[in-house]
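Got a spare moment? Tell me how you read both lines of this record:
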Amino acid sequence: MAAEITMPQLGLTMTEGTVSQWLKHEGDIVKKGDELVEIETDKISNIVEAHEDGVLLKIVAQEGESLPVKALLGYIGQPGEQIGAAASAAAVPDSAKSMAAPALREAPVQKIAAGGWVPATPYARKLARDGGLDLTLVTGTGYNGRVIGSDVADCKTAATVRISPTAAKVAADLGIDPAAIQTAGRIMKADVLQSAGIAAAAVAAVPQVTASPVSVVPAHGEKLKGMRKVIAQRLGEGWRNTPHVHHTVEINMTEAAALRGKFIAMDRKFSFTDLIIKAMCKVLEEYRNANDSLDGAYIIHNPEINMGVAVAIDGGLIVPVIKNANQLGLMDIHQKVGELARKAREHTLSPDELSGGTCTISNLGMYGCDHFTPIVNPPEAAILGVCRTVEKAVVIDHQIVIAPMMNAVLGYDHRIIDGATAGLVTSRLREYLENPLLLL
């Protein structure tokens, strides 16, 4: 009997995944452990592997399609095996079909203006666009309230109102319920104004929306997909939604380099990154609101300090998380960073190792970087950018000396962290790194 390939759950919060790319074609022979299809979520890109030997009999979910967890993606079976029509049609599990249809937004927790930007999957946007449904009227059931494809489909079924985005905005501005407007077909702006009793002359005064030009694929263009697409979405959302401020502090690494040399002499090697993680954890213990996160209208006071460490891999960037990093010693941090970096490059990180971060460190020093402004990784409040250590002429005790100096850049969400607090954080970080024995 043919075995189903289903959408995996790559974390406790995952409700939906998008088929990024099929790595096998229908009719291909597959072995247990072969890579079948690439799945992407809000956080990661992952590979679904074959659980048995056989042939990829049928592909049900197409590339670019977003589906709920446990939804049918395809079938593996024996050569020549037939798939029943009923089974082939079961692309969505019964549990997903039986979910209650999302209601129209009447009093959403986070107010979104009609026609405004709504976090949604590409597939959900396509469904809404094709059906003439304003996404601000749909309640998202995805991660952090994100609108997914099934939300749009269920909302179109539950609500018979078909209204253009412009009409929806005008209706919201005038306080009119679109469901109360009687018209044949899709509700347009003129229908809303007529329902409000506004004269036809006023219709002309309402700005018209010009259709966007059809995008043309560049001759040498490559479709944004997989990990690159996830990075673009996550960092794009972070930059749009987070009021960033950056503080730069210059740190004398003389004592840190001396301490590292002593450890190396004892065959106990650690990197500057390890030491900076240890120092940042100590700072976050003292200034706890720099470890907070924002969830809608609420500031979350995270009890744990979970440090994300940005790791460059082929095709992108990934941020594994060291859980309870403040409870680890320097050499424990060194071991954990090495383990997570290795897993990141081997693509073997678990969903738990990629979630739950409360602060992130990004070190570009090995690339000769003297200054950069890192983007905060939402919902975190802060990220520390680490630059290269370079010998400079500096004044110490009225004497010009040569010292290894390093720039550290704190990027932070100004909704959570004030400038004074950020200044205290960077000053304390400098104090720890210039006096590293305080960390031991």
Remarks:
- The domain at 3-96 is CATH 2.40.50.100 (OB fold (Dihydrolipoamide Acetyltransferase, E2P)).
- The chain has three domains: 3-96, 122-205, 242-439.
- Residues 330-346 form the longest helix (17 residues).
